[in-house]
Design a protein that fits this description.
The mean pLDDT is 90. Helix 1 packs across helix 7, helix 3 runs antiparallel to helix 7 and helix 3 crosses helix 8. By secondary structure, the chain is α+β, with helices and mostly antiparallel strands. The protein has 2 domains: 206 residues, Bira Bifunctional Protein, Domain 2 (BirA Bifunctional Protein, domain 2, 2-Layer Sandwich), CATH 3.30.930; 45 residues, SH3 type barrels, CATH 2.30.30. The two termini are 35 Å apart. It is built from 8 helices and 12 strands. Keywords: Ligase. It holds the Pfam family BPL_LplA_LipB. GO terms for molecular function: biotin--[biotin carboxyl-carrier protein] ligase activity.
Length: 285
């Protein structure tokens, strides 16, 4: 007998997403591109952006065959259970702020929909307790006119159980299976199935609210109160700060206390020798 009750997968209802949507830009009109299966929502969104796609286009799918994680890792999902989205943006502000607004949007949406307090593990993982429930991948490029485009990719383990993910993917590499064992889903954490359409609509609203505020601030050529407020909100949600951590950067290993983040979102590590090291990338343990 199975240790878990299998959650039934189903296709996204795009009309229902539009029904719940309260945005001005993201996903409005014909700005939702849905495909039941894609290799990667980020790859498709980037192709659309380079070809001149309008800002605010959101690519959604039920299943990725080559989903992207950080540092070239694979994003593992089971068809019809998760939230997999990539949004085309043309920010006038530094791209590192996209990580901040995406992370805060996921945390706020989980609180709104599931009444659960999630936290942010630097730089871009969302945790419930010590278990990963979502990840963010920001990719940037330039379109045919030479203008900056950014893809905000968000993957959320919405429904099902992690044991179900592993059972349905017998070809998983050992490393991927071990990472999955440290993950969770919103259904596991909340005890009920999550309406993915409502979640996506709320997520896009949360992203848009801060994104448009930063765009307006950038258009005024001011590094002002909105940027500072968002950085402080993001900093306050970081579960990494104050902990003794190890940072893996390829074959290099750094250790110390995660003391703070700077204005650009870089992690400030106080090494055991007392040196303050600015960390721009790496895996945190």
């Amino acid at each position: 007998m199975d240790e878990f009750e299998t959650t039934t997968s189903r296709s996204l209802d795009v009309a229902d997403i539009r029904h719940h949507l309260k945005t001005e830009l993201l996903g409005t009109g014909n700005h939702i591109v849905y495909a039941p299966t894609v290799d990667s929502t980020n790859s498709l969104a980037m192709k659309l952006a380079r070809d001149g796609s309008e800002e605010g286009v959101v690519v959604l799918t039920d299943n990725q065959t080559a989903g992207k994680g950080r540092q070239g890792r694979r994003w593992v999902d089971v068809a019809g259970l998760n939230v997999l989205s990539s949004t085309v943006l043309r920010p006038l502000f530094p791209p590192y702020q996209l990580v901040m607004i995406a992370s805060l949007a996921v945390v706020d949406t989980i609180a709104d929909i599931c009444n659960i307090q999630a936290t942010i593990k630097w730089p871009n993982d969302i945790l419930i307790g010590e278990h990963k429930v979502a990840g963010i991948l920001i990719e940037t490029s330039h379109d045919q006119m030479g203008q900056l485009v950014a893809i905000m990719g968000i993957g959320v383990n919405a429904n099902g159980h992690i044991s179900q993910f592993i059972a349905e993917q017998p070809s998983l590499q050992q490393a991927d299976a071990e990472l999955l064992k440290r993950a969770t889903t919103l259904e596991e954490s909340s005890g009920h199935v999550v309406n993915r359409e409502m979640f996506i609509a709320r997520l896009l609203y949360q992203i848009e609210t801060r994104y448009l505020a930063l765009q307006r601030e950038a258009q005024a050529y001011v590094n002002g109160p909105i940027s500072r407020l968002i950085r402080e909100q993001w900093r306050n949600q970081l579960s990494t700060l104050g902990r003794t951590i190890q940072v893996h950067q390829g074959s290099k290993l750094l250790s110390g206390v995660a003391e703070d983040v700077n204005d650009q979102g870089e992690l400030l590590l106080r090494s055991h020798s007392g040196e303050c090291i600015s960390i721009t990338w790496g895996d945190i343990e």
